[in-house]
Structures are given as structure tokens and as C-alpha cells.
Amino acid sequence: MVLPSVTPKPPTAPVPGAQVAPEEALRLAEAFRIFSQASEELSGAYSKLQSHVEQLSDELAAANGALRQQYQEKAALTERLSLLLDALPAGVVVLDDAGSVVQFNPAASNFLGDVKVGADWAAIYAKTLVPDATPGEFLGGERHLAVDVTPLDSTGGRIVLLHDITEAQLLKTQAERNQRLAAMGEMAAQLAHQLRTPLAAALLYAGNLQNAELAADNRAAIAEKTVARLKHIEHLIQDMLLFARGEALGRERFTVTDLFVELTQNFEPLAQNNGVRFIVTDKSAGTWLTGKRKSLVSALTSLLENALQSVEGQEDRCIEISARREESTLLLAVKDNGRGMDNATAARLFEPFYTTRSDGTGLGLAIARGVARAHGGGIEVISNPSAGAEFILSLPCPKN
CATH for 88-164? Predict the structure, then answer.
């Protein structure tokens, strides 16, 4: 920017030939001196002002250039983000602080159907997304969607991310099915192995019965052994069926006291015949349970029978079953003073077909754990090789 030239107007000169008084001459000379000085100062200030204006013009041009470059960069970034948003396979919906749709990408429109700017997200959510059993997952038409909502702190709005997990769900379902088939194959192989020995013995005994020269007493003994082996096979198959359908849960309502009464009737005679002290301690304070009582009786009976096997050979044999509450959990404990077990054995106790007994099926404890899980609980074991073992069956028990 160039400023216009400014020339100071000098004082009026005296008319030629006119007489000028000495004092007037001095005043005129002083005025001319002051005028010359002011003119020089004004010229210097003008030069400085012009230089400053030129500097400001250069700075303004540089600032305009920087702003123009930033604008171009932001425009390019906006274009890239817009292209990226459109290309994302996940759906993106941007909401304002009132829950209205501000922006969405094609994937979101594909997932949710007819979505428009300004639409109410709550209405779209209620109309399009059906909650699945897994928290955060929904059924949107034929797709399985995972929905994640992130708040925008700066504007008070939200970003809704929609992930299509249909393929992942199919793969998960197939993997679970393959896992079940593999488990069934393994169990079938183990069951065949378990059945082979008693079946071979039964066939051998039955073959001996065909001997016409066999004495009547021997025939009766062999027939009894044959029936025993066949009953063992039947028991094994029944245990297998119980294990297979162990997740079925009834809706009976009963008290822990009723449960212990039935257990005592079933197990106390067996304990007396084996010379075992059987102690029942009920500190459940009349707790009510909901489930399948027969299944729980069977599971606890398996734990008691396991304890009975453990105390064989001990001098003072004792088995105790107790019940106590810890807040909203009922703990049913079966404790013995038997041989106990090492950590390696304890870690495998609940595996199907794993047993340390020659006549065991290896399914009793596995069935007991299945029953506990079906009732929303579990089983854990605390064992010491020199102080016996304690099995603790935990069950949820809300306040009555």
C-alpha cells in the first residue's frame, strides 16, 4: 500500500519591496526554521509509515497464503474421510445431542434400511434392531449386528458403530458343532472301551452256561456273574444318558432340609453297613431352592459314594455332609477323612470316563458337575493326601 504525498504549506513570504521590522524578520526566520523541521519530521514519519504498511501487506499476504493452504489441506482431508466413511464395511451413524441422525454412511443405510438425516435414532433402534441373547448384539433383518455407541464429548452427540458379525456367528456355530461332534466321537470311543470289558466277561460267562455238563451250583454262580456284568453295562449306559441330558433343569421348589432328608434315607443304611459315621449338618436356615430335586439328590449321592470309596481301609471312617449360606450362595459340602488325592488326580476328577477305581464308570462326578452347572452353580474339590477330601457344590439361592 502506497500513501499519497503530503507537502506542508510554507509560511507566506513577505511582499517584495515591503519594509520588514527586525522583530518580524526574526519571527519569520524562526517560523521558517520550525516549518523546515516539521517538514523533515513529517517526511520521516511518512517514510516509516509507508515501510510499515508494506511490511503489514507482506504479512497479510503470507497469512492469506497459509490460510489458503490450510483450507486446501482440510478440504482434501474431508474428502478422504468422506471416501473412507463411504468405503467402510461397518455402519457409522452420527447423532447430535438430541439423538437425531446427523450423518450416516452407505453401510449403515444398508443395515438399517431407510435412514434419513434428522430421523430419531430411538425410533430406528426400536424398529430395526432386535436384541440378541448376547449383550451388545442384535438381529437386523437377516444380519447379526454388534452395536457400539461412543459419546462425543465436544458436541454432546454420539457415534453409533454397526459391525456385521453374521459370518463370525456362522463360523462360531460351526466350530461349536464340530466341537460337539468331536466330543461325541471321543465319548463314543471311550464308551465302547468301557463296554468292551464287561461285555466280554458276560459273553464268556454266557458261553460257559452252554456247557451241558456244568453243575447246577456252578451254573447258578456263572449266571449270577453274567447278570452282574450285564447290569454293569446297563448302569454304564444309564450314566451315559444322564450325562448327555444333564443340562435339563426342572422347576421344583424345595428346601435344603427336604433334600437332606431324602439323602439321609438313601445313604445312611449304606454308611452303617460299611461301618462309617455319617454326619449331617444343616446350617442353611430353611433355604429354598428351585430346580430338579432328583438330579441334585443323584449328584450329592455320587459325591457321598465317592467319599465312601475314599475312606475304605481307614480306622475311624467318617463322612459329613453340610449346608451353609454365604450371602446369595448355598454351599453343600461332602467331606471325608479318607486317603485324599494328589493335585494331578484332583485336576482330572470331573473328566468323563476318568476313574481311579477298577469297577468305576468315570461318569458319576462328571454328571454331578453337569447337574450343578445346570442349576447355575459348580463343584470344586479341596484335597489333602493325608487329610481326606472335601467336595463343595455351590448353588445360587436368592433371598427367600
Answer: 3.30.450.20
